[in-house]
Specification:
single chain, about 425 residues, eight-stranded mixed beta sheet, disordered N terminus, binds flavin-adenine dinucleotide
Length: about 425
């Protein structure tokens, strides 16, 4: 099985071909490294169905993936550099030019506008399945890459010179570097003994797509409530439906989440219309709702011997800021750059210097984003009147301070993760 003259079958094996693992593989495709990409799911070839009727609805309306990401301009540049952005836009992506953040029953609000910083958009809302399918399509034409899919990694063992993986078929393969991009629950992370720190948010997120009476006007909206946070992210829908669909992320206490999940669609739409203070008029239709507990998790180290963590395997973060995918893309941009530099210098891909540099560049940034999310949660948890007053006053002050606001917009747009 081993390639002639080498101790391992591959230089780099990536486990997980989701949004982050697929991007990692494409970033390394011209590196000269022998690559394999493994996922327990089959390759998602071709354009995903984007016009399925929502189950149970009478009319044919678009069906959206419940997982969407607010792709920043920095992440878009990464997708452009690996040649998949045009496909994503052609299939379905929704630019947003405005952001409105406000507090329920308070007077504080902040507005961000792309024109203020002379940009055409603040970012794009893209469904995960669109991103993944566009990348899988590209992956199939890469000669230096073996796509081993579907195949589940069941065991991992290490020695000084290689990592050995055992697949569910019984096949074994070896690699000099193992990159775990296998998601928040990361079986590879567990099998290789990494430790993590976890914060339970004591919240659950309800995610679905909804049809709104009024058009979203390419604006991403977020409302902070005493018992949670509600986000409306504008989606691109075809023809008559254009402008009328949003993806929502509604994060609330578990008991409230259970109650909301148990409501019939019509009652859920009414409750959501009320909670959103009829921002976009009545909520007229909802897709199937899914809910999941919100846990923030961060690996204590991203590197252990010949194994390295990226994306949700290294850090999973509150969807409040829509940053999960962007942080993971920044991880793979930095790791790819370091591996390519290392290869040019003739280093082992698992050289501790190469991997330590990746960890040093990414961990503080990811940690600060997680701390910020925790701070938001605490700031907006039910608070005494004086704290609410301060919050509202602070929001208004930021809104009236253009320089600070522009700096915040640039940060949110992900400046500084370019790979070249
Ligand atoms: C419901 C939901 C809504 C979200 N909304 C947002 C949002 O609005 N904005 C945002 O930025 N982020 C959001 N996120 C987070 C975002 O989706 C993730 O940050 C991002 O997709 C992480 O991608 P990943 O590739 O690291 O992991 P994943 O997408 O989880 O991919 C992991 C891959 O590993 C494979 N795998 C797992 N175990 C094995 C194994 N043993 N062997 C082989 N393969 C394996 C899986 O099949 C999968 O394909 C949301 C997440 C969820 C769950």
């Amino acid at each position: 099985m081993s390639a002639a003259g080498t101790a391992a079958d591959y230089d780099v094996v990536i486990v997980g071909a989701g949004l982050i693992g697929a991007a990692m593989a494409l970033l390394l495709r011209d590196s000269g490294l022998r690559l394999a990409l493994i996922d327990s799911q089959p390759v998602q070839a071709g354009q995903p169905l984007v016009n399925d009727p929502i189950s149970g609805s009478a009319s044919a309306t678009p069906e959206f993936d419940a997982r969407v990401s607010a792709i920043t301009p920095a992440s878009r540049e990464l997708f452009e550099s690996i040649g998949v952005w045009q496909t994503m836009v052609q299939w379905r992506a929704s630019p947003y030019t405005h952001m409105h953040v406000r507090e329920t029953d308070g007077t504080g609000s902040i507005d961000f506008c792309a024109a203020d910083i002379h940009a055409s958009a603040l970012g794009h809302i893209v469904e995960n399945r669109i991103c993944v399918a566009a990348m899988h399509q590209k992956l199939q034409t890469q000669p230096m890459l073996d796509c081993v899919m579907p195949a589940r990694v069941d065991a991992v063992s290490n020695d000084q010179s290689v990592v050995q993986l055992t697949l569910d078929s019984g096949r074994q393969l070896t690699t000099r570097l193992l990159i775990a991009a296998d998601g928040a629950q990361s079986p590879v992370r567990a099998m290789t003994g990494f430790t993590t720190r976890e914060w339970d948010y004591e919240h659950e997120a309800i995610v679905c797509s909804v049809r709104t009476e009024q058009k979203h006007g390419q604006c991403a909206r977020q409302i902070f409530m005493d018992d949670g946070v509600l986000a409306f992210l504008p989606l691109a829908a075809p023809d008559d439906e254009a402008g009328h669909w949003c993806s929502i992320v509604w994060s609330v206490l578990p008991l409230r989440a259970q109650a909301l999940m148990g409501l019939p669609d019509e009652a859920f739409c009414q409750t959501l219309s009320y909670a959103s203070e009829h921002w976009l008029g009545q909520i007229q239709q909802t897709s199937t709702r899914i809910s999941f507990p919100l846990t923030q998790r961060h690996a204590v180290d991203y590197v252990q011997g010949r194994t390295v963590l990226v994306g949700d395997a290294a850090h999973s973060i509150h969807p409040l800021a829509g940053q999960g995918a962007n942080l993971g893309l920044a991880d793979v941009a930095v790791l790819a750059r370091e591996l390519i530099k290392g290869k040019a210098a003739g280093r082992d891909p698992a050289d501790p210097l190469v991997l330590a540099r990746y960890q040093r560049l990414r961990k503080p940034h990811n940690l600060s984003m997680m701390l910020m999310m925790e701070g938001f949660k605490r700031l907006y948890a039910d608070q005494p009147l004086a704290v609410r007053w301060l919050r509202n006053t602070g929001m208004k002050a930021v809104n009236q301070w253009p320089m600070l606001k522009h700096q915040l917009i640039r940060e949110a747009m992900g400046s500084g993760i370019k790979i070249s």
